[in-house]
Design brief:
BirA Bifunctional Protein, domain 2; Helix Hairpins; 3 domains; 5-stranded antiparallel beta sheet; 10 strands; 12% strand
């Protein structure tokens, strides 16, 4: 079972990455890896991607969540999980790849210095692929990460806890719950057992006393196990949002309604009587069936009309034309996909070149100022501009490795990136449209065959009948 968390990083990305990649926590950095970045230079690469995004998309700091530079996700495994550090690391990479759809640079580090194995994932808030910002929504993002993590754990034979009503648990409390020693879990279980048996709130309290649980009334209902190490009463809302006094009373009432008034489904009704004394009478089954049949006929008519328009548009005059048209569109789709892949690969190279050229030229003036400093002021100047100078040095090193002349105008490369990005978007739209046409033709083909098949069978019967009469 893995517990997941996510939080935003608004500054000091370098310090955060330096912490999670600590050799003492990661088996000498053997349990550290990066996606689209080298871990030692990840903070610099994140910054460069951000600078390139500003050139292509504008300044994100003027928008919501704009000041979030990166995000930190933690995936913790329980002691009871039989998982090696290497397996945990691989599981963390799978989580990051699926969560980020391979669009964000990240560093992952697996810590083994504590009582339980846990992964730290720090990823760039800005996508290197499309330069969009990661959209984090309260609760929803955390829930989605947990959903992915739980599924991966389940697929790998690890325990997955499913507790939709209770509040989030810490690692210690979860282990106590699993072993049956958590007093909070014992109280929750007792409440869950008492509600179906209670007829009202008073009888619920009596049932809790029988279960050796004290109930304290007041502004907030609170519970305490008798003769246990629990020192203080715990409020119901601390156990879970449904465990307040109001929530328990509602649960008892709703349980009674379920018994007394069984559901009859979403049955349609019609009015009978007069305006002063209307009566709701349920539709009888035969009339409901008749209504649904008429409704289906209307839908079928609309589908038939759409199909006829499609046949005219695609110039389908006989059954064999379907296969000819579908095969032609599939061939067209394959060509578009190939063009997209080729252009995307070329554009990725231009993006990488632009990334380093933009940062190099942006911080070149600071480097030149640094070089002009005297022996007495150089150290102090470097201390003030360390992050910018590190970015400059890294950009220069990368450009040399890529054999790109530093005198190349970054604006020209940026224009190429923008132009090819537009071309890729146009090809994606064409591919989507072609794929949609193929699906529509397949549906129309099935519909035509269903209509024609009974007619053909009737024709065959008529021919046989005529032959028999002769």
């Amino acid at each position: 079972m893995a517990v997941t968390k996510i939080k935003a990083i608004k500054s000091t990305v370098y310090k955060a990455i330096d912490y999670i990649t600590n050799p003492l926590k990661t088996d000498g950095k053997l349990l550290v890896s990066g996606f689209k970045v080298e871990p030692p230079f990840a903070a610099i690469e994140f910054k460069m991607t951000g600078e390139l995004a500003k050139e292509l998309k504008g300044d994100y700091t003027k928008t919501g969540n704009g000041n979030n530079l990166a995000y930190h996700t933690i995936q913790s495994f329980a002691k009871v999980d039989k998982i090696t550090p290497e397996e945990a690391h691989e599981l963390g990479k799978q989580l990051a790849d699926e969560m980020l759809q391979e669009k964000h640079e990240y560093v992952i580090a697996t810590h083994i210095d504590k009582g339980h194995i846990h992964n730290h994932i720090i990823f760039n808030a800005i996508s290197y692929a499309d330069f969009k910002k990661f959209r984090s929504e309260p609760y929803k993002t955390a829930a989605k990460i947990r959903e992915i993590s739980d599924r991966l754990c389940e697929e790998n034979g690890l325990y997955v806890v499913k507790e939709p009503l209770g509040k989030g648990k810490g690692h210690k409390e979860w282990q106590e719950t699993k072993s049956g020693t958590s007093w909070k879990a014992q109280i929750q279980a007792a409440i869950d057992q008492a509600i179906p048996l209670a007829t009202d709130y008073s009888s619920f309290v009596e049932l809790m006393k029988q279960a050796k649980i004290e109930v304290k009334e007041g502004k907030h209902v609170a519970f305490k196990l008798e003769g246990q190490q629990q020192q203080r009463f715990v409020r119901g809302k601390t156990i879970g949002h449904n465990y307040t006094k109001e929530g328990i009373i509602d649960a008892i009432k709703n349980k009674a309604k379920t018994i007394e008034q069984p559901s009859i489904g979403n049955e349609k009704t019609r009015s009978k009587g007069n305006l002063h004394n209307p009566k709701k009478v349920p539709f009888t089954l035969d009339k409901r069936v008749a209504y649904q049949t008429r409704k289906q006929k209307i839908i079928a008519t609309k589908e038939l009309a759409n199909m006829l328009v499609l046949l005219r548009h695609e110039t389908i005059s006989k059954l064999s034309d379907f296969e000819i048209r579908i095969d032609a569109l599939k061939a067209q789709s394959t060509v578009i996909k190939g063009d997209m892949k080729q252009l995307d690969g070329k554009n990725a190279q231009y993006k990488e070149a632009a990334k380093y050229l933009v940062s190099y030229h942006q911080y070149l003036p600071i480097k030149q100022q640094h070089d002009r400093q005297s022996i007495f002021t150089k150290k102090q100047f470097y201390s003030r501009h360390e992050s910018e100078l590190l970015v400059y040095d890294h950009a220069l090193k990368k450009l040399e490795m890529m054999s790109i002349n530093t005198t190349v105008n970054p604006d020209k490369v940026l224009d190429l990136v923008k132009q090819q990005t537009r071309q890729i978007a146009e090809l994606q739209a064409q591919y989507k449209q072609t794929d949609s046409r193929i699906n529509e033709l397949n549906k129309a083909q099935d519909m035509v065959q269903k209509i024609i098949k009974p007619q053909r069978e009737e024709s065959k019967k008529d021919i046989k009948k005529e032959k028999a009469e002769r």
